[in-house]
Amino acid sequence: QVQLVESGGGLVQPGGSLRLSCSASGFTLSEYTTNWYPQTPGKGRELVIRMYSKGGVTTYLDSVEGRFTMSRDIPKHEVYLQMNNLVFEDTAVYYCNNNGYWGQGTQVTVSS
Questions:
Q1: Which of 109, 93, 111 is nearest to 36 (CA)?
Q2: Hey, CA dihedral for 19, 20, 26, 29, is it positive or negative?
Q3: Nearest Cα to 34, choosing from 1, 70, 65?
Q4: Which residues are paired to 80 by β-bridges?
Q5: Of the four, 35, 57, 58, 99, which is 20 to 30 A from 82 by CA?
Q6: Cβ(4)–Cβ(101) under 8 Å?
Q7: pLDDT tens digits in sequence order for the chain, 112 residues long
């Protein structure tokens, strides 16, 4: 069965960190580009960061530059989104996208 599963979301205080995971089954995650899309109520999903199959990472929002990064564990078929110095505006459901597939999303809430 082909699927993507996100995990690692939760409640964190401003300034804190979280690491989200995106795991794949049924295909090799690292052969494709992995994208992360946060979505807030009333807004569409917006690409925030991407890891290419060769491992390069590009961020697409100035607000996360220097705070968000990605890594991966190829043998485990997992890609990670490391989020540091979180702010209220990072609150969203974060979706992983790879090879045309979407995960179910994981909620990140930044609150004091």
A1: 93
A2: negative
A3: 70
A4: 21, 71
A5: 99
A6: yes
A7: 889 999 999 999 999 999 999 999 999 999 999 999 999 988 889 999 999 999 999 999 999 999 999 999 999 999 999 999 999 999 999 999 999 999 999 999 999 9
